[in-house]
Known about the structure:
With 571 residues, the chain is an alpha/beta fold. It has a domain of 335 residues: Alpha/Beta hydrolase fold, catalytic domain (Rossmann fold), CATH 3.40.50.1820. The chain is built from 20 helices and 15 strands. Strands 1, 2, 3, 4, 7, 8, 9, 10, 11, 12, 13, 14 and 15 form a 13-stranded mixed beta sheet that branches. A two-stranded antiparallel ribbon has the order 5-6. α6 packs across α7. 50% of the residues are buried.
Amino acid sequence: MVEITLPFMHLVEMGAKMVSHRIQQYRLATNETVIVDTSYGQVKGVKRKTIYDHDFYAFEGIPYAKPPVGELRFRAPQPPVPWTGVRNCTSTGNRPMQRHFILGILQGSEDCLNLNVYAKELKSDKPLPVMVWIYGGAYQIGEATRDLYAPDYFMERDVVLVTVNYRLGALGFLSLNDPDLQVPGNAGLKDQLLALRWIQENIANFNGDPNNVTLFGESAGAASTHLLMLAPKAQGLFHKAILQSGSALCPWVEAQPRDWAFRLAVELGYKGGNADKEVFRFLSKTSASRIVSAQNRLILPQEEHERIMFAFTPLVEPYESADCLLAKPFKDLLITAWSNEIPVILGSNTHEGLFHYAETKRKPYLVNELADFVHMLPTAVKGEREAHEQKELALRIKEAHFGEKVPHHNDTFDNYLEMVSYRHFFSDIHRTLLARMAYAPNVPTYLYHFAFDSPHFNHYRILNCGKSVRGVSHADDLSYLFYNVSAGKLSSYSDEFKTVQRMTGMWTAFATTGNPNCEEIASTSWQPVEANDAERAQPKCLNIEEEVEFITLPQEKLKVWESLYTNNSLY
């Protein structure tokens, strides 16, 4: 898991902001409550006010599945048990069990399969478009709470927003090969699938249109969205998709074949052999908190050197089952994916690699020991090339990002972070675009580049890098879609406010019509990518900065990464 090390006073400041935010959000609730029917029982929500004093209705902590505990740990989720009476859904439900990404403390619960519904109106002439948010966090952290994903900006628009909690880490992605155990993996993705089914059954009662659902997410949330686009069982559950800084092809998504479950058990004190039934029996009796504490201590030094970052992420399931979601390599599923018939927005941030700033500062050997760069090659490339070919291809990467420089932490830090941006994000987002052009050539795919570099509102860069570093980090776009603990009320004359209006305007226009053009970007015209431009690595995209512009980005380094692949492995 990517670790974040912060100065002590910064931690104190963030803790104070969290407390202040919760107090503020509590005050923004009114005394007006409302009751809505669902398939499983009635829920009570509350009318709230946005930071800009507009009303909306909030229903939080609605269970969409049984608690995944006991016999259901590690397994596919099951529909919830109906309840009698009215369930109080006026405050946030449990977040998933995880280690807090700032404070480092364990938090959350195994009983976390709940979702939040936010509606600007509960009655209107016609039902509102539905937007379903899947959070990121490398499948290790994340939560559908107002601390990180408050709906205030979207509630200025005519939409219904749903945010979904799903299982993380080993609790969500542990896999065992023995079919008798019914733990093939991807339980966290199956949580998301069940939430989408709940939405189809119930969202009309919240004034949402079940026939106009847009699934969107960032980082692991974008990869999850893309994986559901590839999963036959998800067909018809959503009708548009937005992938922000991630896709199923990114190297941190598909789990490397390792004996992760056995390693986890050994780390927790297991003394037996590598037998699935014994490992499962041991882990089933181990507390969730101990599992979460141990799950990120499993990466060996050589695996870290190879840039394997996480043990428990989505994977190709080892056998077919009634709940099987992903039965083939993700790349192979692109060809006949049902989602080749739906419009997509796809994009990234200017300096994605800044997300690794703190970790790289703390571990200078990540730069100093790059050596021949072979371990920086994508797994798909290494799998089809001989050793001498790998060295030649790795040299292309070195020359593209370092030139004649010798990699050293003090002198080539920025070069390394640029290379990380390409290896973990840009290259595979481009491969995803190429796949769309090959397999969905007549369906709109819109490309964007988020480049708005605020000195005080790019919260993830500030959190991870401090206030002196500039650039648009991985996850910085989130601050312009969701209100969060680090945000404040913006002046309507500020560029930050204008960027919020543009982002929510484009995203909700796309959710409504399948076309992101809207009044907020009327000065330009955002056009879908043309197949010929994508194949030449010259796709045009909407560049989102202080102003928006439809441009062709420089693609020299992207062409180098594309050249590593054969046609068989490119997409």
